[in-house]
Amino acid sequence: MQVGNWQSAIANVMKRKPKTYTISAVAEQYNLHPQTLRLYEREGLLKPSRSEGNTRLYTDPDLERLELILSLTRDLGVNLAGVEIIMNMREKMDAMQHEFERFFQYLQTHADELTNFTEPPPEGTSDALVPYSRVTVLRRRSVTRS
């Protein structure tokens, strides 16, 4: 295969739409009635995309979410209200984890500033995550290390 053909083949693969599955295919694969999938959608637990003809199209992330729903309901006996609460809590935990990682990265990139400051930066010049005023900033004492 020539380099040009190889690059165009990769470009074509990257342009492809994600694989989707119809409601009947998903219902058969997971041994469910299609009405069960519609119920999960009505309850807000699944949000399949739609084709131009308004057909439900499930993606791989939708199937992963469905597997979690089925695990909670079938294996653990959780009702749909409980599944909704658990799913919402997982989403909030993921968001908190992302914020924590962002904060930790900020601390790592500003470690020298945070350990060696004597005067706070002038107001309005900081890219701090939490706004502050000069009155609330504590000054760190110089510490001599032996």
Strand and helix layout:
Elements: H1 3-15, E1 20-22, H2 23-29, H3 34-42, E2 49-50, E3 56-59, H4 60-75, H5 80-109, H6 111-116
Antiparallel strand pairs: 1-3, 2-3
Structure, explained:
It is built from six helices and three strands, in the order αβααββααα. It is mainly α and 146 residues long. The protein has a single domain, classed as Multidrug-efflux Transporter Regulator, Chain: A, Domain 2. It has a three-stranded antiparallel beta sheet with strand order 1-3-2. The longest helix has 30 residues. The N and C termini lie far apart (65 Å).
* Straight-line N-to-C gap: 65 Å
CATH architecture: Orthogonal Bundle
Question: Tally the helices: what do you get?
Answer: 6
Morphology? flat
Number of domains: 1
Low-confidence parts, pLDDT < 50 over ≥5 residues? none
The main sheet orders its strands as: 1-3-2
CA radius of gyration is: 26 Å
Sketch the topology as an H/E string, one letter per element: HEHHEEHHH
**Mean pLDDT across residues:** 83
What percent of residues adopt helix (DSSP H or I)? 55-70%
Main features:
Multidrug-efflux Transporter Regulator, Chain: A, Domain 2; 3-stranded antiparallel sheet; 146 residues; flat; mainly alpha; 6 helices
